[in-house]
Amino acid sequence: MLVxxxxxxxxxxxxxxxxHNGFIKKAMVIGGGIAGISASIDLGNGGYEVVLxxxxxxxxxxxxxxxxxxxxxxxxxxxxxxxxxxxxxxxLIKLLTYSEVDRVEGRAxxxxxxxxxxAAYVDWEKCTGCGLCQQKCxxxxxxxxxxxxxxxxxxxxxxxxAVPNKPVINPNHCRYFQEQKCKVCQKICPVGAIDYEQQDRxxxxxVGAIVTAVGFDLIPVKSFGEYGYGEVPDVIDxxxxxxxxxxxxxxxxxxxxxxxxxxxxxVVFIQCTGSRDPERYMxxxxxxxxxxxxxxxxxxxxxxxxGQAYIFYMDIRSTGKGYEEFIQQxxxxxxxxxxxxxxxxxxxxxxxxxxxxxxxxTGKKVEVSADMVVLATxxxxxxxxxxxxxxxxxxxxxxxxxTEAQRKLRPVETDIEGIFIAGCxxxxxxxxDAVAHANAAASKVQGLFAKH
Length: 452
Ligand SMILES: Cc1cc2nc3c(=O)[nH]c(=O)nc-3n(C[C@H](O)[C@H](O)[C@H](O)COP(=O)(O)OP(=O)(O)OC[C@H]3O[C@@H](n4cnc5c(N)ncnc54)[C@H](O)[C@@H]3O)c2cc1C
Hints:
Elements: H1 6-18, E1 19-20, E2 23-24, E3 26-30, H2 34-45, E4 49-53, E5 68-69, E6 74-75, H3 76-89, E7 93-96, E8 99-107, E9 110-117, H4 132-136, E10 140-142, E11 151-153, E12 155-156, E13 168-169, H5 175-179, H6 184-188, E14 201-207, E15 209-212, E16 216-218, E17 235-237, H7 238-245, E18 266-273, H8 289-303, E19 308-313, H9 323-333, E20 337-340, E21 343-349, E22 352-359, E23 364-370, E24 372-377, E25 379-381, H10 385-392, E26 419-421, H11 431-450
Parallel strand pairs: 3-4, 3-15, 4-7, 15-26, 17-24, 18-19, 18-24, 19-20
Antiparallel strand pairs: 1-2, 5-6, 8-9, 9-14, 10-11, 12-13, 16-25, 21-22, 22-23
The structure holds flavin-adenine dinucleotide.
């Protein structure tokens, strides 16, 4: 059922003011990571209205989970927050978070997009973002955002700086939805914003162009049988390490291992876990792991001065500006030990994580009795990217990354006029490349609008 339409009638009004000879000069950006945010701000600053559709409750994407970023080691949130705030406050950007594209019809200049707005069970018009409901909610569950190392209330925002700063209720974790009792959030909310009866609803937007910036995921640690199928608690992935190192994370930024909270004195980092492995996992290079593993090892040493970091690697790919110097500094000044070779097995022995591998430079077997292991797992597309590509009528490659019209000369266009791609939705990228890709997509949209 297509419900409502305050939004629908608003969108019809703007469509009239933005349309020239029936060509609507308003854009939709799907995905609110750094790529989607960058494209939205560019388009908004160019004078065009933008509808930004994000499936999570707030924008920011994976960068929201990062602690510091290579190659400058500046705080990710200090770089990101001004951008999320600018997006949230931009007069020409309309945020539709906790929303997903349901259906797309039409063509360049007149796409009609039906969007599902998921039930938050909180009336965001009334909610002031005071946070009382989150403080008082008695239900605590493993937080997906903190890679299951921290706890999250049943009513939650993704981060303290969430944009928009509006909570949602996870019905799977909420005592009212599960057991018909509690209702603490409803009792405590000073403005009566809790609405357990709220349903998903649909809105329709008409836009002239679409930028798809739905980002990436990581291949789960439990895919790796040789590393214990995710059952060794002190074997974590790179995003989990980012959360451990974050002041807003589960250990308030102290490097403590998940099993017992001890400070790990020997940490093994393993690059190319699932990347460049055509026989078993992904054949492609995930492009950012060499750099973020070097970053992780350095950040670990900054916090645990007497700790030892080992990095197992195949090659070191540090091709960006200042990247090679960043890696060299880690090796020469911070005592990080690089071991060239693959790891064959990881297993638990008492409270240690034993890592077996081979140093291919010396030809010798290596065994490290570590306290924690960090896997740089392959970047993969978000699981619904292929389905979204189908709705948009654009192509995805065999892995599910979106396919550009031409690899070298048309890197942000697709085969469908008016639909563009940006960021890691097209393939693994670091932040600088994702932003440049998004800037290019936004400028292509503006070029298209300028022609009409
Ligand atoms: C462990 C780790 C550390 C890293 N460290 C660094 C670093 O130090 N420096 C650096 O330059 N890079 C780093 N990166 C890479 C960086 O995370 C990416 O370059 C960046 O996040 C890409 O941004 P994006 O917007 O393309 O994708 P994402 O950040 O993935 O954002 C995509 C957004 O789209 C949303 N979305 C997904 N599907 C849909 C849908 N169907 N509908 C609506 N919305 C949807 C997602 O919820 C998300 O908000 C690191 C990556 C990892 C894994």
